[in-house]
Amino acid sequence: KDAISKALRSRDAFLLHGPPGTGKTTTIIEIILQEVKRGAKILACAASNIAVDNIVERLSQYRTKLVRLGHPARLLPQVLDSALDAQVLRADNSSLAGDIRKEMKVLNSKLLKAKDRNTKRDIRKELKTLAKEERKRQQLAVADVIKNADVVLSTLTGASTKKLAGITFDLVIIDEAAQALEVACWIALLKGPRCVLAGDHLQLPPTIQSVEAEKKGMGKTLFERLTEGYGEEITSMLTVQYRMHELIMNWSSKELYDNKIKAHSSVAGHMLYDLEGVNKSSSTEPTIILVDTTGCDMEEVKDEEESTMNEGEAAVSIAHAKLLVESGVRAIDIGIITPYSAQVFYYMLSVLIKIYR
Q1: 186 and 298: one domain?
Q2: Domain check: are 197 and 231 in the same one?
Q3: Total domain count for the chain?
Q4: How do 301-302 and 195-199 pair as beta strands?
Q5: Which of 26, 107, 117, 289 is the one with CA 20 to 30 A from 342?
Q6: Which residue, 304, 305, 292, 310, is CA-closest to 351?
Q7: Residue ranges of the alpha helices (H) in the chain?
Q8: 260 lies in some domain
Q9: Residue 218 φ then ψ, to 5°
Q10: CB-neighbour burial class of residue 116 (10 A; exposed 0-12, middle 13-18, buried 19+)
């Protein structure tokens, strides 16, 4: 509540620092809803399509007029109904454009059959006029959808579209701002007088492929620079996390967040065996297990693409996953994470099948 209140009072920039599991997206949604109630028109962006779609999906639960910009092929299926293309198809001007296209189809058929030169000329002239009107109607349909939306959502680079030319927003919100390049942030930020940047600069930064750009400061995000420059003056940090057992949380809270992160009572002591159908066992009882494979002849090898693979460690993790399944944990609920593509490939082809035998 304090973070939301501070964001609503902000006259220019506000930073929402959201460590893992602390409800950053939920807070963003509430800020949007409160701003819409006040009559604000909002541009909400993120660096990735998946992060934008996550906001769209959450906002769709409310009676908020929103539109998602972007190519439908890059959007999640569950947000396609909110996409600009889908809404344009339902618009009155788009319907008129469709009628014009039908008329043009009839004229094209007549043109193919016409033999008289003057008749052909007149048909072509009429087709040209109709084509111009069709484009105009289609553009009006797009403009109307965007104009009537309370919230427009796109990726940061997608905000550079000509469809937003000349439109000023009351508030610009950027989610995952600590993983976005500053230059991309400015595409959206220049479209409004106020902004809310949400993210966590203590997690992974954006990927900078240019060594020279990294040396010249491109690796430092706008979120990080504003945090260093203004600190608590413009920042609210969410400190209660709702995702993980407190034993899993403790390390990051201590090492990264000055012991400020606390586990909510609903998750602080939750265990695997609290799940329906899962038995309490030596596999499901430990909250966290660290396995030291030093000196166990589990050697790393490189594949043809120089990616790393370790068959021994794969076998250990798969064996543990199998024990979890035997204790009642559904295989679909188990995630195995590795930083190497070769290891992932090894799991997929050689080992995972053992769980289902």
Answers
A1: no
A2: yes
A3: 3
A4: unpaired
A5: 289
A6: 310
A7: 2-9, 24-37, 49-59, 84-89, 92-113, 117-148, 182-189, 211-215, 222-230, 246-255, 311-326, 341-346
A8: no
A9: -65, -20
A10: exposed
Domain that holds residue 346: 272-356
Looking up tokens 């002239």 gives 125
Q: Does residue 327 sit within a domain?
A: yes
Residue ending a domain, choose from 105, 120, 146: 146
Question: pLDDT tens per residue, the chain (357 residues)?
Answer: 899 999 999 999 999 999 999 999 999 999 999 999 999 999 999 999 999 999 999 999 998 999 999 988 888 888 888 998 888 877 654 555 566 566 657 667 767 777 787 877 877 776 677 666 666 667 788 888 999 999 999 999 999 999 999 899 999 999 999 999 999 999 999 999 999 999 999 988 887 878 888 887 788 899 999 999 998 899 999 999 999 999 999 999 999 999 999 999 999 999 999 999 999 999 999 899 888 988 888 888 887 778 888 888 888 888 898 899 999 999 889 988 988 888 888 877 765 565 555
